[in-house]
Design a protein that fits this description.
Layout (H helix, E strand, L loop, with lengths): L5 H14 L3 E17 L3 H5 L2 E16 H17 L4 H15 L1
Helix pairs in contact: 1-3
Length: 102
């Protein structure tokens, strides 16, 4: 038992579902990426296009998802605070999952 009522569970699920489309940008990184361009002029260029490569500077944004990261972390913190007697089980679960995933 996690200690949530059915309505609380429903709304937590609903907020996570709605929040899954919201990304909160943390920072941006400049990256240089190769871009391939094909120039088409005649019919033979359609079959055998002339390709050229160039490097363009782009921005990559690092973001945190509201429904997939922030809401689950808040729920986890709530559960840890309200059930401190289960700390060893929490730590064992973290160690096991880290070992399996790593």
């Amino acid at each position: 038992m996690l200690g949530f009522s059915p309505w609380q569970t429903f709304f937590l699920f609903l907020f996570s579902l709605i929040g899954s489309v919201i990304n909160i940008p943390v920072y941006s990184v400049k990256v240089k990426q190769s871009v391939q361009e094909a120039r088409l002029g005649s019919f033979t260029d359609f079959l055998y296009p002339q390709r050229s490569f160039s490097r363009q500077e782009m921005r990559s944004t690092i973001a945190i998802n509201l429904g997939g990261a922030i809401i689950p972390v808040i729920i986890s913190i709530y559960l840890v605070i309200n059930n401190p007697h289960l700390m060893w089980q929490y730590l064992a679960g973290i160690v096991i999952m880290t070992t399996i995933c790593y």
